[in-house]
Amino acid sequence: MMAFIPPRLRKPAVIAAAGVLFGAAWLVRGGPLWWISIPALIAAPARAIFLYWGGGQDTDAGALAASHADERQQLLSLRSRALACNLAVIAAFIGLTAAIAVKAAWWWPFLVILGIAGLGYLLGLLNYGVTEAGTPDDVDTRHQTRSPVNS
Amino acid sequence: MVEEEGRGDLRASHADREQAIEMLKTAFTQERLAKDEFEVRVGQAFAARTHAQLAVVTADIPAPPIPDQPPSISRVREQRTRREISQAELAEALGVSRQTVISIEGGRYLPSLPLAFAIARFFDLTVDKMFDPEEEEAGA
To answer: If you average pLDDT over residues A13-27, what whole number do you get?
Structure first.
C-alpha cells in the first residue's frame, strides 16, 4: 500500500493516521476525558506537516523523514531503533519486577511487552539468515582444508 | 607549497589561488611576512596562471598544520578535489546523500561493497586503490 504513496508523504501519512486513530479512540471512549481527542486530532496533522517540511531539508533527519535515506542513513535509523527497543525492554523489565515486588495487578502489560520483544528478536533471527548457515564446503567435498600455517 | 608533485604546469583554479592567499594571510598574521611583502605576494597569487607560479609565491612559507580530524582510510576527498567535483555532485552521481559523502571522506563511515565499487568506478580506480592508500604507497 505504501508503494502508492509518494516517499515524502509516507511518514507524515502514518503519523497523521496514528494521531487520528488515537484521537478517535478518546472520542469513542467518551466520558469526562473525551476532550483529549481535540489536542490529539490537532497535534497529529501538525506533526505530519512538520515531518513533511523536515523531509525537504538537506539533512540526515530530512532524508529519513522523506523516506529516501541512503545506506548510511538507514543504518543510523536502524541503530537508533535498536537502541530504543533495548531501552523499552529494560524499562519493561524494571516495571515488571517493581510490579511483582509491590504485588500490583498491572504486572502483565510489562510481561506482554517483554514477550513481544523476545518474539520479535527470534523472528528477526529467523528472517535474517540464521537458518542459512548451511554445511561447511569441506564436509560437502569430503576434502579437509588445512591452514598452510598449521600443515 | 601549493604545488603538488607533477602539477607545476597545470593551470591553477580560483580555489588554488584562494588557498595560496590563505597561506599568505596566515603567514602575515604570524608576522612571517611584512605588510608590503604580503601585498606584493597576494598580487602575484592573483596573477598566477599555473601551479608552479603559485608555488613560487608560497615557497618559503611553512605548510599549515594538518587539521585535527580522524584519519581517512579512503582517497575519496583526494580524488574528488583533484577533479574539482563538489560533494553534492559526487553524492548525486553515486545516489547517496551529501552527508554520506562527507562521512566517507572524514573516515566516519565505511561504505558497503556495492557503494565502494560505485565510488571506485566513478573515479576509474579499483576498490583497493581507492580504499587502501597503504597499498599504493608501498608499491610506489
So the answer is: 94
